[in-house]
Amino acid sequence: MHDCRINPLANCPRGLIAWSGMLLVFISLSSHCTAEGLNTERQLRKSVVNESFWKPHTESRNWKYVVIHHTATESGSIDQIHRAHLQRKDSQGRPWRGIGYHFVIGNGQGMKDGQVEPTFRWQGQIDGAHAGNELYNRFGIGVCLIGNFETHGPSQAQLDSLQHLLAYLNRAYSIQSDHVLGHGQIKSTQCPGQNFPLKNYSRYSPEESP
To answer: What's the pTM value of the predicted model, to 2 decimals?
Structure first.
């Protein structure tokens, strides 16, 4: 019986040496692929969740709430929502300025899965047109996830990105989970859908509103 513990290559049969070499190559390739995969994943996450793009272009406002929405569609993008909202009018009959939300999170159909994009309302620190309530339009950051969460839940990438965004808004504006709410908590609507796990992100109580 051959003992290869002192020198793995000394006195070992050629077949064993060849097998050992193949094993080392396999381990090396596996390690390389794993590192490459992790690096690719990091690059992808950086491309869809990048806080440097979230900084407003003007002086920040005193935001107090985050209002979560869904599009109730299977696909969508900022541009598509913007074009649709340009066709709407407010209660006074005035046309909307465009997309009513401050952030949109994609689902892979129109935007990358988990991609977080700020809109012109966030960049310019402008009132939202998303809540159907003056208080929450004025002081609430509208975050809309692409998808119809009446029929299915958000993707894991969307939920991860939402958590990242909420953590950012908490650090920047001290918005705690008790000021994170679903659209349906302030207006008669199913938004953001029965399959959205709102309780994981919100401890909001309407009775606590000013």
So the answer is: 0.76
